[in-house]
Specification:
By secondary structure, this protein is of the alpha/beta class. It has helices at about 5-15, 120-130, 145-155, 180-195, 195-200, 210-215, 235, 255-265, 265-275, 290-300, 320-330, 335-355, and strands at about 40, 65-70, 85, 90, 110, 135, 175-180, 280-285. Strands 6-5-7-8 form a four-stranded parallel β-sheet, with helices on both faces. The protein has a two-stranded antiparallel ribbon with strand order 1-2.
């Protein structure tokens, strides 16, 4: 490719920061080969997942029988893309950056995490994509397994399997999500749910408790606000309960993999992080301005979209105190670890797409806590 063509492509991407084009329709072939990113080692008992960057492998115990290793440095020179930043050439990429949603004809799936600004984003995406050729699947809470089920049915062919043995959607679906700090999300869930009709009819003790009283109650029967995984990890890992009538839609398949991931928080957290990295876009409620700018860039919009306020609580709730936050944190180690990784990943994407960095550099994983599993 000529140097002038490289510069023109670079300039076209840079112009996405300014009012320029409408959503582009043409489909561009995506480089799908990441080198040998994942390898599988199948043993006799159970399933587990581990990255081989900055983390220890779990010992070969009865709960650790299958490892899926994430190699952040094995992209391979033949598959690495090189970008131009002015007259300075960057090094090959370890990982490909997210594709631009405006460059694909893929359907867009919104992985809607509860009490994270998702209803507002759902409304925004439906408005932005209305009348376009993009198919949007939203207005529903579902986990990653639901996306895999839908895409497998749509393709009606045997596709390749992903790292957890499910249908690989990384190349044929643009998955987006919106995240919030797990502690703030937990508090919001508590106060929001107290106003719901089913909660009022249930006469739960939580209806008459403050958040601190609820956290200190050792006999509570309603645990959704402090359920580890509901701030994103279980949505991305695709391991919500599969029974009919549950508030999160799934593929309705109960498998040994799902059962193992529910027990093994290390494996579930790592799988969630890998799938977060494969998203076409994700935003952070606490970093709304930059999140909307990245959405503008990915969709090729003329202006920065404005997130409407939907499903907001009419009366605000008390902000958790430092003491309360510490109480909540002990319940949410998996989601807190994923949130730390999401902040690193968000920053890497921001620096790449706004040309702070010429080349995309996948962030390191945070140190894994001892999940006890």
């Amino acid at each position: 490719m000529s140097q002038s063509k490289i510069r023109r492509r670079k300039q076209a991407r840079h112009d996405a920061l300014l009012p320029t084009t409408n959503i582009r329709r043409q489909k561009r072939a995506r480089q799908t080969s990441y080198g040998k990113i994942f390898s599988r080692v199948v043993c006799a008992v159970g399933i587990s997942i581990a990255y081989d960057l900055l983390i220890r492998r779990e010992s070969s115990s009865s709960e650790s029988a299958m490892y899926i290793e994430h190699n952040f440095t094995a992209a391979g020179a033949s598959n690495a893309r090189i970008r131009k930043c002015g007259n300075k050439q960057s090094a090959p990429l370890d990982h490909q950056p997210p594709r631009y949603m405006s460059d694909t004809s893929n359907p867009i799936y919104f992985l809607h995490v509860g009490k994270s600004g998702g209803t507002s984003l759902d409304t925004l995406l439906m408005d932005l994509l209305n009348g376009t050729e993009k198919r949007y699947i939203g207005d529903l809470h579902y986990d990653y397994s639901f996306i895999q089920m839908q895409q497998k049915a749509n393709h009606r062919i045997r596709g390749r399997m992903d790292e957890a043995g499910g249908f690989d959607v990384s190349g044929n679906a643009d998955v987006v999500t919106f995240l919030r700090h797990p502690v703030a999300r937990a508090a919001s869930q508590f106060y929001f749910s107290k106003g719901l009709p089913w909660m009022k009819k249930s006469k739960q003790k939580a209806l008459f408790q403050t958040f601190d009283q609820y956290l200190d109650d050792d006999n509570k029967t309603w645990t959704q606000p402090i359920a580890d995984g509901e701030s994103g990890a279980d949505f991305l890992a695709g391991i919500f309960p599969t029974e009919d009538g549950y508030w999160v839609a799934t593929d309705k398949r109960e498998t040994a993999v799902k059962r193992h991931l529910r027990q093994n928080k290390t494996a579930a957290a790592l799988l969630a992080a890998q799938r977060l990295e494969s998203t076409a876009w994700f935003g952070m409620l606490e970093d709304l301005e930059r999140s909307m700018k990245l959405l503008q860039i990915s969709l090729g919009l003329e202006t920065v979209p404005v997130l409407p306020k939907e499903n907001a609580q009419k009366q605000g709730h008390p902000k958790p105190s430092e003491e309360t936050m510490k109480k909540i944190e002990k319940y949410l180690p998996k989601d807190l670890w994923l949130h730390e990784y999401s902040q690193r990943l968000f920053e890497a994407r921001w620096q790449y797409f706004t040309d702070v960095q010429c080349s995309y550099k996948s962030p390191d994983l945070p140190p894994l806590p001892d999940f006890g599993s």
